[in-house]
Amino acid sequence: MKVSYFPGCTLKTTAKELDAYTRASAKALGVTLEEIENWQCCGGVFTTANDEIATKLSSIRALTEANAKEQPLVSVCSACHNVIKQTNRAMQTDADFAFRVNNYMRMQSDTYTEYHGEARVMHFLELLRDEIGFDKVAAAVKNSLKGKKIAAYYGCLLLRPGKTMQMDDVENPRIIEDLIRALGAEPVIYASRNECCGGYVALDSPDSAAKQSRKVLDGAISAGADLIVTACPLCRYNLIKNGKSDIPVVYFTELLAEALGVKETEDAQ
Amino acid sequence: MPRIGVFVCWCGSNIAGTVDVSTVSEAVKNEQGVVFSTNYQYMCSQSGQDIIKNAIRKHNLTGIVVCSCSPRMHEATFRKTAAAAGLNPYMVEIANIREQCSWVHKDMLTGTQKAIVLTKAAIAKVNLNSPLTPGESPVTKRALVIGGGIAGIQTALDIADAGFPVDIVETKPTIGGKMAQLDKTFPTLDCAACILTPKMVDAAQNDKIRIYSYSEVEEVNGFVGNFDVKIRRKARYVKEELCTGCGLCTEKCPQKKVPNEFNMGMDNRRAIYIPFAQAVPKVATIDADYCTMLKTGKCGVCSKVCTAGAIDYKQKDEIITERYGAIVAATGFNPISMDKFDEYAYSQSKDVITSLEFERLTNAAGPTAGKLLRPSDGKHPHTVVFVQCVGSRCAAAEKGKEYCSKICCMYTAKHAMLIRDKYPDVEVYVFYIDVRTPGKNFDEFYRRAVEEYGVHYIKGMVGKVSPEGDVLKVQASDLIANKQLHIDADLVVLAAAIEPDKSARSLATMLTASMDTNDFFTEAHPKLRPVESPTAGVFLSGACQGPKDIPETVSQAGAAASKVIGLLAKDKLIGNPCIAHSDEMMCNGCSSCERVCPYGAITYVNKEFRMPDRTTLVRRVASVNEAVCQGCGACTVACPSGAMDLRGFTAQQIMSEVDAICK
Amino acid sequence: MQVSEYKPRIVAFCCNWCSYAGADLAGNNRLNYPAEVKIIRVPCSCRVNPSFVLRAFQRGADGVIICGCHPGDCHYTSGNYYTRRRMAMLFSMLEYLGIEKERTRVEWVSAAEGAKFAATMNDFVETVAALGENKRLEDLRCKR
Amino acid sequence: MHNKDNVTERVLRISGVNARRCMKCGKCSASCPSYDEMEYHPHQFVYMVESGDVEPLLNSRSIYKCLTCFACVDRCPRGVEPVKLVEAIRLEVIREQGANHLRADDVPAKIDEDVPQQLLVSAFRKYAK
Is the pTM of this model over 0.90? Predict the structure, then answer.
């Protein structure tokens, strides 16, 4: 299948491997990722103020492009996915916002067609679960990760706000655990897996961010994990920075690429 | 031609002080149909009534207008007067010239003019009145109670006590309901079983009461006084009349891994089981989902050990039909699912339990024989956290319930107190939003928990429960101290919101009884008719009408019973003749009236009509059940073809009043 | 002065259980309201067919008010909700036809609200009187 | 005098929050991971906005401590969405008072070479106009 793909700024810089492993795994699973042309940075966080238009337009541009191609819009970075999905939801539910956005976009382009959140926004995890199916993923595994005890770290952006994200049970998610199982490894459940890593506060108050990250790390370590996987470059940065070298933290796509046997291929470089 | 008499009352000076009564009786003399008109000091007095009676006879009156006080005062009086003189009582109209005229106007001219108009309006209406006769229907002197919890048991006992036969239909293998699962009861701390089980035995032994356990209501037809009800008696694969309840089969059954619902799944039972020692009827039931014999045809242990020969693997569901005069819904409640509240980790840790599970945990007949032990490892807990309002007062409909579940504050105080009483070493925290204790001795009870038993009540909610190792890390607000608290708990108890039993909705549909948005049954009037459903002959008992504790349930059960007794005591039901009536020739069968009727009084029938050309035509037309219609008139307005009208308040009559007033 | 001379014709439909009893209570308490208000008793406000309102205007009424039980208190459970919806539609149609919306009103008056009944009627009559006669829908052929 | 009512009104409008729905259960504050970093806690934001007492919030560092993790939104039993109030108040400060909390010049000192882009754009979005 073909899907529209929104990589996001970090995937072109410090998180190049997240992008590469995603592309390699998608290819191995028969999914074509068509990168959105001239995509712009999502802004990192969704602004909840309902009078903010400009900060949401990059999402709108990506959404309308995917919609025109009748493709779902897939991203892999938690933050991009969160911003795009929340923006799309606002287009569906906030008529006033949609009206103003549509007016603005029309001024930019004569060919713009009215948009009300029709596009389907998916995280790469959802693509794996709902479109490909974890059973198919499991069947495609070449190097089983058997014996590894892996802690899934969701953070906040993947799941919340639950009403909008609708990925999984916000308080007791299982999508990454199910993926871990599909790859042959053993998921480790711990309570802080859906708590915030400290996020962007890391810049302003590194200490308070460190406390958050520590809580996550300690939770995963005491539950017996050998490895933490995440979908978010900022989560990974915070966990690695505050985890010293207690436990490795990798992107879930790296794990996927490894299990599918495409980690060392050209696609992943 | 109508012959109408007009009788203007002075009411002493009450009317005559502001209304010139003789001008009124004079002014209407030439109104259409009026053949007699007079005035008198007190029309409601014996001599006043005699004037009316004599005039009816002397002038062959076909209708009368009494200009007097409000019809709410003396309409019944004057209808009786008319009837005594041989006039149909519904040929009487009242012009309210006291409350709505003489008493609210000061000036004689104004009052008199208005009285004349009101009288003319009444005359215009009575011209169009037709004699009405209330319908009658017989009453089957047997009641059905649906649900065998404390509400249903109490209702049945009270009805039986008045001498009427009553059947209880209970979907579970035993009656007793939620109360049978409880340990102690607030605010007296007497044991639930000690006060409930004697009532269960009373019900079983009462020769007026039949208990259909393991049965469900499948279909309801008919109406007040005459409901035909189909009851499905589910196959329990045990002959109820032969089983002695010895329990041998339940000990020998090799299928031991069936979650025991009576203990909220905290231990296991066998595939053949008696829910608890005091079950009524004390009869074994085979759980077809687990029984090896029923599933594979190989086993038969219970049959072998049963000396009474009661096991019957070939038993089938049986449908019985009974006729009842009255039906009481007593379907009760359940705690809501905790799936949507996993911030409390209910599905992640065995040591996070609901309050109903806690009841079983402290019950001497429960899975731990009453010892407070953690479900996960059987260890004694040292810190117990109670969380109130889990799912109650929750505006998100997809998660919880917007209403207050009412019983949680009190049972939590009870639980906290019971722990501190038996195990003073255990620290108990209760997180609450508000403590709501309106009820006799309720607040005193809660204060005792705090002051005498040292339970820590903290205003604030719990944000998250994190199972870490063998502790439950509780993160919560203390709003008074303005602090975030972190407590390491061994056991967390959730006061889950309660909701009506799932069976209530389909039952309401069968009964055409209305429900609110939360699936609680709606009462006929929220203040004045709290135990009656708007559907005649259907009554409400217990938590199916709204959250209730035991004392409230029992008093409502008694109230419902007294309403049932009042109905069954009648030999026949006399209806209100002022009800809807459909002109079948005009009805186009559109169902608009059926949809607005709050009582389900309108049904559609296929009727054969003889056409002018002598052919016959079958048409679907509305038919009003006269015993059920209450005469509100909603259908008359909904009817697009004008077929539906309301007797006593016909469109013609009301328009004639409008015309008279606007002249 | 001229305005106060003019006496509008007001038809008030009152449900038997709440508003008619409220009107009786106004009488019991001797609370005055203008004699122009003439009450028609109906079992429930939902018995009021929009055609009755039209009829009143056709026959020369200057204002029509419908009184029922408070929402949630209807003797017949839900009748007043029907009234509310039906009359909202009717009134907006009437406004479209040129009958000022002040000439029509739905009010909830309970059996205990004698004072509210009188106050409502005083206010309504004053409002309608200020608008003057309704000529828009009056059918002169019906005039005597 | 600073027109308090206008600020409150603006905060309510751009947040789209109905503070009156709050039943003061404190579940937002019980869920907040930044609670101990804050001088005013989520439930106080809601209460203070509801009662028009926004001034202290505008001047508090608490508005920069919110992680926008949406835990308060997901767990609020009344659908109040406290995070939106925090955001609106922060925007009020940044927009109306031009008080950027983060200046580009200060950034190099705060970062290391591994800092993801995402952190910088998020922080600027949250702390600066």
Answer: no
- The CA distances from residue D72 to A89, A104, A190, D25, in Å, are 19, 32, 20, 12
Q: List CB contacts (< 8 A) between A233 and chain D.
A: 116-118
Structural domain count, chain A: 2
The ipTM value here is: 0.79
Closest CA to B57 of B38, B82, B26: B82
Please indicate whether, in this complex, the C-beta atoms of A191 and B469 are within 8 angstroms of each other.
Answer: no
B334-498 is classed in which CATH architecture? 3-Layer(bba) Sandwich (3.50)
> B461, D35: Cβ pair inside 8 Å?
no
Residue D129 belongs to domain spanning: 102-129
| Closest residue in chain D to residue B484, using alpha carbons only | D30
Q: In terms of CA atoms, which chain D residue is nearest residue B465?
A: D31
Q: Which chain D residues touch A50 with a CB distance below 8 Å?
A: 14-16
Q: What's the CA gap between B6 and B25, in Å, rounded?
A: 7
pLDDT tens digits along A55-105: 999 999 999 999 999 999 999 999 999 999 999 999 999 999 999 999 999
Count of CB pairs separated by less than 8 Å, A with D:
135
Give the chain D residue whose CA is nearest to the CA of B393: D77
> Which residue does chain C place closest to B114, by CA atoms?
C35
CB contact under 8 A, D119 and A203: yes
Query: Are both D61 and D110 inside the same structural domain?
Result: no
CB B3 within 8 A of CB B62: yes
On chain D, the residues whose CB falls within 8 A of the CB of A49 are 14-15, 84, 87-88, 91
Query: Which residue range(s) make up the domain with A224?
Result: 141-268
* CATH code, A240: 3.40.50.11810
- What is the tens place of the pLDDT at every residue in D92-126? 898 876 677 888 888 888 888 888 988 988 888 88
CATH number for the domain running over B143-332+500-568: 3.50.50.60
Contact B462 D27 (CB under 8 A): yes
Looking at the structure, do residues D119 and D70 belong to the same domain, yes or no? no
Residues in chain C, pLDDT under 50: 1-4
Of B105, B110, B66, nearest to B89 by C-alpha is B66
CB-based contact, A222 to chain B, within 8 Å: yes
Q: Name the residue type at position B52.
A: I
Q: Regarding beta strands B190-191 and B184-185, do their DSSP bridges make them parallel or antiparallel, or are they unpaired? A: antiparallel
Domain B580-647 bears CATH identifier 3.30.70.3270: yes
Q: Are A149 and A226 in contact (CB under 8 A)?
A: yes
Same domain for A118 and A186?
no
User: Which whole-number Å values give the CA distances from A43 to A38, A251, D75, in the listed order?
Assistant: 15, 21, 26
Question: Do D54 and D2 touch, CB atoms closer than 8 A?
Answer: no
Share of chain C above pLDDT 70, in %: 95
The domain limits of chain B are: 4-127, 143-332+500-568, 334-498, 580-647
CATH number of domain containing A108: 1.20.1050.140
CATH 3.40.50 fits B4-127, yes or no: yes
Nearest CA to CA, how far is D38 from chain B (Å)? 11
Domain boundary among A123, A151, A177: A123
How many domains does chain D contain in total?
2
* Nearest C-alpha in A relative to B472: A191
Q: What is the pLDDT of residues B525-565, one digit of tens each?
A: 888 889 998 788 999 999 999 999 999 999 999 999 999 99
How far apart (Å, rounded) are the C-alpha atoms in residues B646 and B626?
12
B174 pLDDT band, cuts 50/70/90, is very high
Q: Are D58 and D13 members of one domain?
A: yes
Answer whether residue A44 is part of any domain.
Answer: yes
Instruction: With CB atoms and an 8 Å threshold, state whether B484 touches D36.
Output: yes
Do D92 and D109 lie in one domain? The reply is no
Residues 59-88 of A with CB under 8 A from B: none
Asked if B99 lies within 8 A of C38 by C-beta distance, the reply is no
Side by side, the strands of the sheet bearing C63-68 are: C37-42, C10-15, C63-68, C104-108
Residue B468 and residue A222: Cβ atoms within 8 Å?
A: yes
Instruction: Please report residues of B whose CB lies closer than 8 A to that of C27.
Output: 70, 98-101, 103-104
